Amino acid sequence: MKYLFSLSVFLLSFQLQAQELTGAEQFWSKLELHCGKAYEGKLVSPESDPRFAGRLVMHVRSCEDGRIRIPFFVGEDRSRTWVLTKDESGLIQLKHDHRHEDGSEDKVTQYGGKATNTGSALIQFFPADQFTAGLLPAAVGNVWWITVDETSFTYNLRRLGSDTLFSVKFDLTKPVYAPEAPWGWKD
What we know:
Lipocalin; alpha+beta; about 20% helix; 3 helices
């Protein structure tokens, strides 16, 4: 009987602790479960785009304290990495790190945005930040969002005031062999 009481107290404590986590913290924890794993994806919208022809793979390659880096490979092109960071208040920022084959930064890199609230455990929104507006004036209306649940990860972009919509979905139920390091990485 004492064991059952202790187990009940532990489970209640665990539930209360889980309820105290913000949406951003729960979202972050879901991503961390995939550290070191790679997944194949498919273009959802538009249904075809020659810039994204070839095998699409995301690799949750690096999970550090407050930063998760996810290279996104398009065929042999290893130039893109999504970089998620948490600030001191727990809000998440998304940046796009673009590199050339020699590892040098592309002239269009480090754009993105920061969540304006804690979001939910399943979705985070990132409206374009001031740096992005200065770098890419047409992207001032960009909103990126990432969803993650038990079976899938989606990366999405909508440019408000235009027809621009991009969405790629990855199957989290079937890990694939981790690809080579992205361009610019030492390992």
